[in-house]
Amino acid sequence: MHGNIVEKVKGFLLKPAETFRATSSESLNSAYQYYVILLIIYSILLAIVISVSLGVTYYTLPLTGVLGSNGASIVNAFTPFLVSYVLFIPYLMFMFMLFGIFLSGFWYHVFVILFGGRKGLAQTVKTVMYAWTPFFLIGWIPFISIIGIIWSWILIIIGIRENQEMTYGMAALVLIVPLILTLIFFIGLFAVIVSFVGAIASILPG
């Protein structure tokens, strides 16, 4: 099992097109098990990184004088919060990604259908699961995580191309169009919130 996972990881990183073709006949269960194992490893590493980075910053604050003469007591008072935060954030991300991968796969499959994909929903979901490989490997590293995201996006395009019998152009649209729509959504949401807050501020006295 573990040897198979290592071989898959190497395949998706070094020979993604061939590996996507080789895994196209595998079950959704197999892809999800692979995804969850990498997700667990990623979550543990993320928790370690968050705990170390926050811990170093948090416990050196009294030495900087930023918190004043009561710095040590303030740090001690907020220690339970820091511990709960370090444990909760990785867990929250783990739960979100554990279940959200199916919603993500369905979201992409809508555009697979739109742009001429020939295979079923399961192939798209498996593709997205496998495509997260680079992100899980380096996404827990600060600042380097953006490379993992971009790399995974590239794998989504390659995987959609191979598993849905589409051209690279159409496969790229399957990724790009949802990203644009998501960006427009958040820009619109931000504009609505800002305009609402502005309207409330304008009618309040003084």
Radius of gyration: 22 Å
**Helix and strand composition category:** mainly alpha
Work out the count of structural domains: 1
Shape, principal axes of CA atoms: flat
What is the typical, i.e. mean, pLDDT? 87
Spatial gap, N to C terminus: 68 Å
Order of helices and strands: HHHHHHHH
Percent helix = over 70%
Q: Care to count the β-strands?
A: 0
Strand content: under 5%
Largest sheet: none
* Tally of separate helices: 8
Given as residue ranges, the uncertain stretches (5+ residues, pLDDT < 50) are none
Set down the secondary structure blueprint.
Blueprint (H helix, E strand, L loop, with lengths): L1 H13 L1 H8 L4 H37 L6 H44 L6 H11 L1 H6 L6 H19 L4 H36 L3
Question: What do these coordinates show?
Answer:
By secondary structure, the protein is mainly alpha-helical. The protein has one domain. Helix content is 84%, strand content 0%. It is built from eight helices and no strands. The protein has helices at 2-14, 16-23, 28-64, 71-114, 121-131, 133-138, 145-163, 168-203. It is flat. The protein starts with a helix and ends with a helix. The model has no long low-confidence stretch (mean pLDDT 87).
